[in-house]
């Protein structure tokens, strides 16, 4: 079954606990951490993650769009994150960092910006629990989905299958009811949705609708037929 991770970047920051509760039918709550250095935006940090982890039963999926994740990522595990994603472009020692995240009890994930190819990281995939392919340039919510990322999603799914890995493939950026089926058909199974969830009149129903569309597309996708 497809996993839907609403992004609180599109939520009301003055009501984060309530916004988290509004999507408790979701699989994970996606938390975008930005430092105004790796990306040109500043959002939230460790104290907010600590507070959120106490305010919701939904596990936290922290996406670190920050410099020096080798130093900071373990702190987000300690703050309560169940999954921590660092960027390949920012990590000095990605294998060591992934192992440290796992050793602290969270799922380890690595993200790739749109211009970063997957192929140089093929040998690292067994060290990860999830690979995130950005389908917009990281930094801001509400951007249009980049269709040119679909071949990259397909190639990543092929590498996962080639190595027989139980690796989740997440997409983030412009995911909506009009784009999620294409992502699922290409090979994604975890979907971050911000505006499509929190911009809806009923966020919980938006989560259910997105999951249904993704599951429908996955059922007929070539990559899933062998599962």
From TrEMBL:
Record field: catalytic activity: D-ribulose 5-phosphate = D-xylulose 5-phosphate
Cofactor note: Binds 1 divalent metal cation per subunit.
Pfam families attached to this UniProt entry: Ribul_P_3_epim (PF00834)
Annotated catalytic residues: 32 (proton acceptor), 172 (proton donor)
Matching InterPro entries: Aldolase_TIM, Ribul_P_3_epim, Ribul_P_3_epim-like, RibuloseP-bd_barrel
Residues binding substrate: 7, 63, 139-142, 172-174, 194-195
Positions contributing to a divalent metal cation binding: 30, 32, 63, 172
Gene3D superfamilies, per the entry: Aldolase class I
Pathway as given in its UniProt record: Carbohydrate degradation
Highest taxon above the source species: Bacteria
This protein's UniProt keywords: Carbohydrate metabolism, Isomerase, Metal-binding
EC number: 5.1.3.1
EC main group: isomerase
Keyword Signal among UniProt keywords: no
Cofactor(s) annotated in UniProt: Co(2+); a divalent metal cation; Fe(2+); Mn(2+)
HAMAP family membership: RPE
Family recorded in the similarity comment: Belongs to the ribulose-phosphate 3-epimerase family.
Its biological purpose: Catalyzes the reversible epimerization of D-ribulose 5-phosphate to D-xylulose 5-phosphate.
Record-given protein name: Ribulose-phosphate 3-epimerase
């Amino acid at each position: 079954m497809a996993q839907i991770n609403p992004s609180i970047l599109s939520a009301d920051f003055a009501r984060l606990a309530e916004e988290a509760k509004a999507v408790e039918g979701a699989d994970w709550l996606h938390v975008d951490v930005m430092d105004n250095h790796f990306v040109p935006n500043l959002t939230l940090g460790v104290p907010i993650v600590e507070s959120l982890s106490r305010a919701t039963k939904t596990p936290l999926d922290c996406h670190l769009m920050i410099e020096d994740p080798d130093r900071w990522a373990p702190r987000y595990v300690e703050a309560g994150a169940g999954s921590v994603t660092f960027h390949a472009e920012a990590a000095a020692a990605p294998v060591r960092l992934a192992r440290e995240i796992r050793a602290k009890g969270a799922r380890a994930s690595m993200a790739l910006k749109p211009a970063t190819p997957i192929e140089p990281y093929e040998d690292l995939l067994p060290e990860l629990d999830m690979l995130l392919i950005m389908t917009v340039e990281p930094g801001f919510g509400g951007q249009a989905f980049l269709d040119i990322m679909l071949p990259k999603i397909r190639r990543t799914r092929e590498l996962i299958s080639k190595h027989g890995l139980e690796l989740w493939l997440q997409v983030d950026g412009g995911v909506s009811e009009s784009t999620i089926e294409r992502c699922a058909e290409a090979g994604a199974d975890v979907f971050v949705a911000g505006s499509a969830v929190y911009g809806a009149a009923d966020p919980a129903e938006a989560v259910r609708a997105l999951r249904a569309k993704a599951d429908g597309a996955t059922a007929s996708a070539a990559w899933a037929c062998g599962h």
